[in-house]
Design goal:
Shape: globular
Order of helices and strands: HEEEEEEEEEEE
Number of helices: 1
Strand content: 35-45%
Structural class: mainly beta
Distance between the termini: 37 Å
Catalytic activity: 2 superoxide + 2 H(+) = H2O2 + O2
Family: Belongs to the Cu-Zn superoxide dismutase family.
CATH architecture: Sandwich
Strand order of the largest sheet: 5-10-11-1-2-3-9
CATH topology: Immunoglobulin-like
Oligomer: single chain
CATH class: Mainly Beta
Biased composition (Basic and acidic residues): 100-110
EC number: 1.15.1.1
Protein name: Superoxide dismutase [Cu-Zn]
């Protein structure tokens, strides 16, 4: 019936549109609370897509977070499971450290020459919602597959003092599939 109404060229156009929609031009990451005992309640999603000016745009649609600024990072491994460090269970430790493929060992923020996984701070409004997109100019979508996104309890000062910039404990995590 479709061929009779639209003709063969219509089928080709629809097939091309479906192919574009299902390509890897964006990721939707389900975010959950994390604690030393494991992965908890659903907090919403973050959609990651190519940014028009280069880099990637992370668009949060999150709820039930503590208002204020939060450290926000891409971590090296695709896991939100807790792990043990020095005999103490730590939330989402299985995600590893910040994505740092060049092994800079430096925490210099999203525009610095340090960790590639350093993202702009995530802002949560006074009702606990985060909806304001951030752009990470140094990242590409190809850098992200098989990684995780972590939200930290506090703001991030983008330095190594205190270690890891003062973002604090890991409170939310999502795996980029």
């Amino acid at each position: 019936m479709f061929n009779k109404v639209c003709g063969l060229s219509g089928v080709v156009v629809v097939a091309a549109m479906l192919s574009a929609c299902s390509s890897n031009d964006r990721f939707t990451v389900k975010m959950n609370q994390v604690s030393p005992s494991g992965v908890g309640a659903d907090l919403g999603t973050i959609t990651i897509s190519s940014a028009s000016g280069g880099g990637v745009e992370l668009t949060p649609n999150l709820h039930d977070l503590v208002p204020g600024e939060h450290g926000f990072h891409v971590h090296e491994k695709a896991s939100c499971d807790p792990g043990s460090k020095n005999g103490v269970m730590v939330a989402a430790l299985a995600a590893g450290g910040h994505l740092d493929p060049d092994k800079t060992g430096k925490h210099e923020g999203p525009d610095g020459a340090g960790h590639l996984g350093d993202l702009p701070r995530l802002t949560v409004n006074d009702k606990g919602f985060a909806t304001v997109p951030v752009v990470a100019k140094r990242l590409k979508l190809a850098d992200l597959k098989g990684r995780s996104v972590i939200i930290h309890s506090g703001g991030d000062n983008y330095t190594d003092n205190p270690p890891m910039g003062g973002g604090g404990s890991r409170i939310a995590c999502g795996v980029i599939k």
